[in-house]
Design brief:
The protein is an all-alpha fold. Helix content is about 70%, strand content about 0%. This is DedA family protein.
Length: about 140
C-alpha cells in the first residue's frame, strides 16, 4: 500500500467525510474506508473508530432532522413500519447502521418527532458496534 501516499490526518478527514456521507441517502462504503485506513495506520485505531462513529451518527442525525421538518401526512401514519417504530421508539435506531433500512429509520424517527437525544444515543451505539467489529477485523487479519 506504499503507492497510496496519504497521511494519517488526511485519512482521518476522509474517513469522517465518508462516514458522514454513507449515513445519508448517498451510497457509500465507510466500512471499507475504515478497514483500509486501519491497515495503513493501525496506531490510529481508537481515533478512527470514534471519528467514523461521529461522522456516521452526524449523517444519521441529518436524516433525522430532514424527517423532522417534513410535513405530517396522515397516510404515512398507516404504514406498518411506522407503527413498529412508534412502538419501539428510539431504541429501534440501534439498527440505523443497516444499509437502506437505517436511512429510512433515521428519517422516520425525525418525522415521528421522536426526541433527538435518545435517537442520537441509540444511533451512535449501533454505529459504534458495527465499526468496532470492522476495526477488530482489520486489526486481527
Amino acid at each position: 500500500m506504499e503507492w497510496i501516499n496519504v497521511t494519517a490526518e488526511q485519512g482521518l478527514a476522509g474517513l469522517f467525510l465518508s462516514s458522514f456521507l454513507a449515513a445519508t441517502l448517498l451510497p457509500g462504503g465507510s466500512e471499507a474506508v475504515l478497514w483500509g485506513f486501519l491497515k495503513m495506520h493501525p496506531e490510529q485505531a481508537s481515533t478512527a473508530l470514534w471519528l467514523a462513529t461521529l461522522g456516521n451518527t452526524a449523517g444519521g442525525m441529518t436524516s433525522w432532522a430532514c424527517g423532522r421538518f417534513l410535513p405530517r401526512w396522515q397516510r404515512l401514519d398507516q404504514l406498518p413500519q411506522m407503527h413498529h417504530l412508534q412502538r419501539w421508539g428510539s431504541p429501534a435506531l440501534l439498527f440505523s447502521w443497516l444499509p437502506l433500512v437505517g436511512d429510512a429509520l433515521c428519517l422516520a424517527a425525525g418525522w415521528l418527532r421522536l426526541h433527538w437525544l435518545p435517537c442520537c444515543l441509540f444511533m451512535a451505539l449501533g454505529k459504534f458496534a458495527r465499526y468496532w467489529l470492522v476495526a477488530q477485523s482489520a486489526l486481527t487479519n
